[in-house]
Amino acid sequence: MAIPSIQPSAQWLATWQANKVNTQPPLDIQKIFSSEKIGEKKLHLMELGTLNFPTGKILVCDPLCELNADNEYLAPYLQSIPAGRHSLQVLVAEYSFDERYAFCRLKCSEQQAVR
């Protein structure tokens, strides 16, 4: 079954474009991924492998709940990425009692991320 095309209205797109600047992360993600610490927590970079995006369209969901042929609302994100294979990376923060995933990124190129 093909993924349905759920397109936002022109008004919604205009509102999103006008407010897009407010959706930018307050932190410099590039700087964080090149840091050894955040605050007092030691960070470790974990490479999770590569993901293939043959069309460049991104679909994010809980696969146990969402990926079924009957889900008419499942649609890719509005924005797309370059088609191809991209590295998935996680920054793990070290705690005295545990480790926690602090940041995750899909690295689409070696160039510095731009806002």
* Percent in strands: 25-35%
Low-pLDDT sequence parts: none
What is the general shape? globular
| Overall strand count | 4
Radius of gyration: 17 Å
> Count the helices. How many?
3
Structural class: alpha+beta
Q: Give the overall average pLDDT.
A: 84
Going across the major beta sheet, what is the strand order? 1-2-3-4
State the separation between the terminal residues, measured CA to CA.
35 Å
Q: Helix-strand pattern, N to C?
A: HHEEHEE
Pfam families: DUF4241 (PF14025)
Question: What is this entry, summarized?
Answer:
InterPro entries: DUF4241. The chain is α+β, with helices and mostly antiparallel strands.
Q: What layout of secondary structure does this protein have?
A:
Layout: H1 10-19, H2 29-33, E1 37-38, E2 41-53, H3 63-66, E3 84-94, E4 99-107
Antiparallel strand pairs: 1-2, 2-3, 3-4
Pfam family, one: DUF4241
InterPro entries: DUF4241 (IPR025335)
